[in-house]
Structures are given as structure tokens and as C-alpha cells.
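Bug #77: duplicate submission created two jobs. Keeping one. Sequence:
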Amino acid sequence: MGKTAIVLGATGLTGNFLLEKLITDSSYKKIKLFSRNSVHKTSTKIEEHLIDLFKLDTCKELFTGDVLFCCIGTTASKTKDKEVYKAIDYGIPVSAAKLATINNIKTFVVLSSMGANPSSSIFYNKTKGEMERDVLRQNIKNTYVLRPSLIGGNRDEVRVGERIGKVVMSLLGPFFLGPLKKYKIISPENIVSCMQKLAESEVYQSIFSSDEIVKIANSNKNK
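Kept job's structure:
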């Protein structure tokens, strides 16, 4: 029997790419989407629930499956109110982890960010770090936290600062060697491939840096 995946953030760049891959992945029979807006995709696998993600706990009875993928995230330029920002980047993933614990979901793969640290003086890094800490505290059997660097690819919304950053990072990419590899731009394809592979495995590591994500994504390609 195929598995059921839950995806949060399927309307975003990485989440949408993940959804496309899950649709064609024969190991999944159903994909439950919880989001504010429709992804506008037709697939017999998709079960879409349009909800207020800030009230995720009201969907407890529907929030069941085998694997939970969380690709939720915003930016300071898009969400200037820090309380709303924290409600998205911290509140939604942690609420999802709590529901996963209640409903005995064994695997949780969550997208964080490079630099995440609950003790950081930088609000963004601190928020991501607190999210990681409190997700891991739920003790879900297989919890995997991904910390990608700047994500490449084209988004629907315009992010001028991010576009400039991508150009600069692309130019500097060849110089990022050894310990600096984790600072290279990472593609959403590599992130999604890593997410899928982790969801199929049982490893002891919980947190993965950007270069580790790429390594996992490209493992077994030539075998």
C-alpha cells in the first residue's frame, strides 16, 4: 500500500516542486495539502484543504498520514510585522509537529535555513533556531531539519534583494570550497530530492547543512 504525505507550503517555490515530485512518486497514494490558497493542480492523489494555517490545530482529525513535509517560510521584506513573521516561520511548523505527535506521524521533514540559532541576535536566525529546537522537542521518531543556503530558482513574487544576492552568490560560487561549500546557492531540485530520500530512510542525524543536502540529493545517481 502507498503512503500518505502531508505537505505544508505547497504554493511556494520548494513546496510546489516537492508536490510535483510526489505526484509522480509511486510510493505515495495520497497527498494532503493544507494551505491558504489552492495550488490549482489536478491529480487524483491530491486532497486539498484550504484553511487558516494559524489555526492548524482545528484540523486535527484530518491531519493524518505517514510523512509530513513542511516547506513553510516567509521573508522580512514580504512580512514586515515581526509577530506575523514569527507566527509563520515558528508557529506553523511547531503546531504541525505537535499534531504529528498526537496523530502518530512517524516522519517529519522541515525546511529551515542556514544560520538558524535560538541564541542569535538576528531575529530571522533566532526564529528559525527556536523553530528547530521546539520541533525537535516533540520527539517525532524521524525528524529531519534541512538548513539550505540561498535557494535558486524563479519565484512568482518579485524579491529584488534576493535576486541581487543570487547573482553575487553565483559569481562567488566557484570560490566556495571545503568548509565554504555550505554557502553555495542550492537548487530547489536538490532540496526536494534530499527531502524524498530522507523520508524513505531512518538515519540518526537530525540537522543537515546545505552541502550535506546536496550530497544526499546526488547520492546513488550513478548506481
